[in-house]
Amino acid sequence: MTPTSRTQTALCAGLFAVAAVVVAGCGGSAPTPVPSVLTDPQAILTQSFAQMEAATTFHVDATIDGSVNAGALGGVLGIGVGLEGALKVDGSTLSGDMDASKPAAHLTATFPRLFGVSAEVVMVDGFSYIKLSTGQKFSKYNAPTSVFAPIASPGASLNIANELKFLKTKLDSGGALTTLSGRESVGGRDVYHLVVTVPASLSNELIGYAGSDAAGAASAVGLVLAPVDLWVYYDTLQPARVRVRASSLTLGSLDLSVILTHYGQSVNIQAPPADQVQG
To answer: 188: phi > 0 → left, psi -120 to 50 → alpha, else beta; which?
Structure first.
């Protein structure tokens, strides 16, 4: 694999990892609309997590902006990328369907400022399949069984409900502060706008569950997580949008915004045919 290919794969892996954490915290089902007369931000967040834990299917549309230091990112990910210096990811996109009940995902991504590369990712049956626009076939990897304690295990599956319970417990016990910014609109629907401030100690702790190497690297580069913006549909208390911003003098900065729609619609996510996967 060439240095450029390694860089593309590493950066794709990193951005998909960020998106995975966000989506794990934003999945939802399509329940009967819930009459919402809530004014307590913590109650709204708790009710939203309850809806998330009932996750079935949903559609994701994300945008990614910022720049990353290729060498520093490789250190955090534990991957040699073969390049140094800042790489722009402004205008990058990620979209696709998630099936939290299976669980499975089919996502496509574009990186117009990153060599113009695009990628297709299928996650199903405990495996991840990634195909870059620079290649002809999918590469197959063992998928992690957990966002916060990832262990690559063939055939195992990510349990999003368990991930959400773990995350909510940590937010409650770790001193995260939730405030209600007001009532707004997303996609023509009324939403609550919550702002969740996560203490640096809790951010580092959550990163630590991704592995001691990642935690040490993230601490070394001084990763700072800005307050997280979460918009929750007023009528169903399902998540509508989430925005996560992280920065580091060494690593760079990323601004990830995710919009979730089409809850509960039928999706059929299958692994790529064997002849489309590298042997």
So the answer is: left
